User: What shape does this take?
Amino acid sequence: MNKRFLFVCNFKMNSLDVMEYVNAIKDDHIDNLVLCPNFCDIKDYAILKRNGIMLGAQNVSEFSGGAYTGEVSASMLKESGADFCIIGHSERKKYMFETLSQTNQKAKRLLEAGITPIICVGEDTEKGDDFAVRYVLLELNEVLKDIAISKVIVAYEPIWAIGTGKVPSNSHIQNVISAIKKYTGVEVCLYGGSFGENNYKEISSLACVDGALIGGASLKPNLIVKIQKDLR
Ligand code: PEP
Assistant: This one.
């Protein structure tokens, strides 16, 4: 493989013992893996920084600080060791009613704190390439308002592919991600949605795909390390 393929692992609301990743990685140095545990576990995962592993969070407050019960600020995440943060995930839009304008505010707070936002976008129904391109560009038009484009990562995640085992065709992924890059100027774009053992070779070979946002498979450290090694 001739490009650096970024693996971003979203553990969601699961608590995975850090020793599982420690044992899978052993003494290896891995510089293209971002692990995103739940807020409480981030500090435990700092031990893996000695192996080159980077850390991320799964959400952040749209406010910088103050009386916002239950919220966690971008500067707190930075202090915990996070250099990346997933925002606008479809599960947050669906269950926590996160809006595009909130995602935009979250991106701004993260950039102020020196954290790279990983902004999720993706269409909710499988209606072909044109529909998907229009859908994600409309989302990004709102989310990227007044944002330094060169400092963010976009994760294209068709909602119908998340956790379902269904993966779009290579040409669909290629068309949507190429359009995102062409029309927004974003330079780093990941694919997300049922990425794993059966499709990693094909997806990582697509020229426009810079990495993967991985949900379910990220809870299997041996598999992630195996895939990462295979793509070196
Ligand atoms: C996700 O939730 O961002 C995701 C891509 O999940 P999965 O890999 O399980 O489809």
